[in-house]
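Residues determine shape. We examine one folded chain.
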Amino acid sequence: MANAHTTQPTVQSGPLTKLRYVLEAVKVEQSLFALPFAYLGMLLAAEGLPTWSAFLWVTVAMVGARNAGMALNRVLDRRLDALNSRTAGRHLPRGLLKPWQLTALGVVGLALLFVAAAQLNTLALALSPLAALAVVGYSVAKRFTWLTHFALGLTLAIAPAGGWIAVTGSISWETILLVFILATFASGFDIFNTAPDVEFDRVHGVHSIPARFGVPVGFWVARLLHLGTSLGLLALGLGLGLAWPYYTGWAIATGLLVYEHRALSPQDLSRLGFVFSTANALVSVTVLLFTAIAVFLGR
């Protein structure tokens, strides 16, 4: 009888409400993870401000690729999300959005990626299908391998590589080092992000390092990855001979990474939301800001 008195929530369907749902579903605010690194790649490649054209088209490519990846990830994961109490409140399981709506957003995002790459240079256009494959493919990696974190890391590492290629039209040691830096950074925080779902993942065949080896081992892997991030940033500054403000930013970013590992533990993930959404964004913005200061001082 209790179910007879249960009322279903009203689903609003106005255009502005739908737009808000879409932005919430793809967590547009989390663009601050990777977008600063795309600008970092451009800044270092140009040894100063890139052209407005490069800035515009890299931004378009990043926004398109990132939102395509998130939208299609939500579509592919909608059935798992509905079963998981942590994610059951997402927009597709609740019926606030339909799969075709996020699929359409994903297609538009990929189209923006290709158009922007075509406006940049030949190498950017040639590599754009690989970028598209990465942003779509990382969503299915967790169904097959516990190396899924590295698939996500390499996908986000497209950002600084794309920024460098947009300016120079070539790949160099700086490109590879930038990929390493962001791949280790993103892979490490993705391990944190999967830690709360270990039991669910084991039951439903979702692969991750915490699910395969346990959360404590996952945390040690994340520590090693973020150590690699810090050392990679240091090597980048030394290799390019950047001015002293860069190393101030490096120290702050390293301190933020240390904070993340102090704020979280296998026994206490209560601050995961803050670490994932805020601390990681602060790392990205800090690296970009102090690198910009160093580049302009060194000119």
Remarks:
- Residues 80 and 204 are 8 Å apart (CA to CA).
